[in-house]
Design a protein that fits this description.
The chain is built from 6 helices and 3 strands, in the order ααβααββαα. With 109 residues, the protein is an alpha+beta fold.
Length: 109
């Protein structure tokens, strides 16, 4: 479990990957649509998607010629359980977490 937990936290440590997860809260997206708001190459986005996939936070599926990304929210459970194990923190409020992720999409001033 430690390796899986490390992968989840490592994936969440990057702003671009958190923004991608926030985008996928709405619905599945094609890789090209995921890359659209970012000023980086499709290859760079693909690397981020690979990290998210290896961490189990998203899945990718080829439908015809298009590769689609889907959020896998259960993958965060191990991180949530680990955080909650400290007992000093409240149970995670998914609505508040979603608002936090949406705030990550706001451009920096």
């Amino acid at each position: 479990m430690t390796d899986a937990l490390d992968q989840v936290f490592a994936a969440l440590a990057d702003t671009t990957r958190r923004r991608i997860l926030t985008m996928l809260l709405e619905d599945d997206m094609a890789v090209t649509d995921v890359s659209e708001p970012f000023e980086m190459s499709l290859a760079a986005i693909s690397k981020h998607l690979g990290i998210l996939t290896r961490a189990g936070l998203i899945s990718q599926e080829k439908r015809g010629r298009v590769k689609w990304c889907k959020l896998e929210p259960d993958a965060m459970r191990s991180a949530i359980v680990w955080i909650e194990s400290f007992g000093q923190l409240e149970a995670l409020n998914f609505d508040a977490f979603e608002k936090f992720l949406e705030g990550e999409l706001e451009p920096d001033p």
